[in-house]
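Appendix C. Worked example: CASP2 protein
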Amino acid sequence: MEIETGIQSFAKEEAHKTANCCVVVMMSHGEPEHIFGRDGQRVNIPKIIGMFNNKNCPALREKPKLFFFQACRGKTVDKGTAGQVVPDSGSLLPSNFLRNAIGQDEPDVTFDQPTATDMLIFYPTQLGNVSFRNASCGSWFTQALTKVFMARAKGFTIMSMMGEVNRLVSENTASTTDPAFHGGKQASECIDRLRKELYFFPGITK
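Step 2, the predicted output written as structure tokens:
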């Protein structure tokens, strides 16, 4: 209830009327369509996203709304599939920067619009799968997100950066003493409802 009340309060803030963008980040344990509070109670992710739609949050209509949910989305461990190793070709970031990561995730307009436009919803893994983390450095997804944004946010679109994030996450492999998780793979996922390209610093790119 504290989580829902806090996010609802944020969605109603007057500051959104003059803001250009909104970002919501939630990090915890989870399961399909839910993220856990510290008491182990489930919070419905679609409900959280719905608080910011065009009906419930008119101050953010036509403005980008980004959601990052770092949590497991199920219990399935993706062990990947064998394939040919393709060398990196000029990427800004090394493809093996997560190679030593180990561990597992513990558990106002004048025309009508669709209700849920101008949103990007990011998940660290696909529906039904676990999300991995490093005990010292944090989750694979958050590590990749931080590194890519620090290197590229000045002049790249959000979607081009997230493609790089997904590449880095997907190239990592879990190394752990638990055979159920050892060799685990992960691919981040994005639901794209934007209607325009999004740059964090649009004035610099023009």
